[in-house]
Give the backbone structure.
Amino acid sequence: MQSSNRDSRKASLINTKQAALQSAQRFLPLLFIWGAEWIFNAVIDFAIYWRDLDWLKTAAFVTALIASFVQVWSLRKSAGASDAEREEAAAHPLLIVVPGLLLIGAVVFLEAIEAVSPLFAPLLRAFLLAVGFVQAGLMLGRGLIYVGLWLFALTIVMGLWYLGYSSVILEGMGGIALVVSGLMLRSGKA
């Protein structure tokens, strides 16, 4: 009896994980869009020492934002043909994204009013991303947890010993982590 209950719970967890992975597949383009934006910003932060290219960072952000809106809009349009699908969309994983968006908005606001020093802003963003990876990994797989823990540890190291380089390194590594997580989710090996 106990073995049967254990097997049924294990099968239920596997089915839940598979359903979550299938739902997450819709959001993969967002990981690639924002991963590319973070990597591009890291390259610009590195190149800024020789030329004033700060306007490119703004252009990359606006481009990623527009691409994200287009992606989310296409998800919304494809989400419901029937009432049952619309009800399912109401409890859709997109709602899981909303708290994350609010948190990102809070970070952007804190940076805009300069409540966070420009030296510490990359640390705050990297910690936020690391926690997001661990949170997503709890539902989608251990691989994302490992990526989140690695980024968390890297952020601590950068904050303690290499704070001046944190914007370049953490944006670059955060972008790479977003792209790698997208590839892991696409292959189903998260």
